[in-house]
Amino acid sequence: MAHLESLNNQAMHSEIAAYLASVPAHRAKSLAQIHDLIMSEFPQATESMEYKMPTYKIGDNWLAIANQKAHISFYTCDPALIQPYLDQHPNIRAGKGCLRFRDTQTVDLPTLRTVVRLALTKDKSQQPS
Q1: Is residue 74 within 8 Å of 89, Cβ to Cβ?
Q2: Which of 4, 8, 67, 71 could form a disulfide with 32 if both were Cys (CB 3.0 to 4.6 A apart)?
Q3: Is the predicted pLDDT of residue 19 greater than 80, yes or no?
Q4: pTM of this prediction?
Q5: For the domain that residue 39 is a member of, what is the CATH number?
Q6: Which of these, 120, 117, 73, 70, lies nearest to 97 by C-alpha position?
Q7: Which domain holds residue 66?
Q8: 54 part of a folded domain
Q9: Mean pLDDT taken over the chain
Q10: Which of the four pLDDT bands, split at 50, 70 and 90, describes residue 7?
């Protein structure tokens, strides 16, 4: 079981706490830091375990994190939202709206903060139909 400062947060959704506690030790710290970043920026975000991964929502906006077999995934499902991170870190693997952090890579939390803000505050009325 991972020993994480986040798990001491009484406000944390119990299923997310259990998920983070079950993550292999070599990824636990990074996932907890990402969770803490999201919640420090958006304490009003609704936490859930949609698709069996920690998911954070504000209205229709959402993002999710997950422990995968060979990496940590950060999902937004919108390529434009992750672009600021890719601009700073072109060697990070990415999918359509998803960043993939390998075990040997350090997550740049200040840059990821920008992506978190974009994902949870994007104005869908400004997007092309």
Answers
A1: no
A2: 4
A3: yes
A4: 0.85
A5: 3.90.1150.200
A6: 73
A7: 26-121
A8: yes
A9: 88
A10: very low
Q: State whether residue 90 is helix, strand or coil.
A: coil
Rounded-to-integer distance, Cα 111 and Cα 91, Å? 14
Is 5 among the domain residues?
no
Residue 126 gets which letter from DSSP?
G
Could you tell me if residue 78 is inside a domain?
Answer: yes
Two tokens at 49?
Answer: 């375990």
Tell me: pLDDT of 8 over 80.
no
pLDDT digits (tens, 9 = 90+) for 28-69: 999 999 999 999 999 999 999 998 999 999 999 999 999 999
Lowest mean pLDDT segment, chosen from 16-20, 21-25, 38-42, 122-126: 122-126
- The CA–CA distances, whole Å, from 45 to 4, 24, 42, 102, 129 equal 20, 26, 5, 26, 26
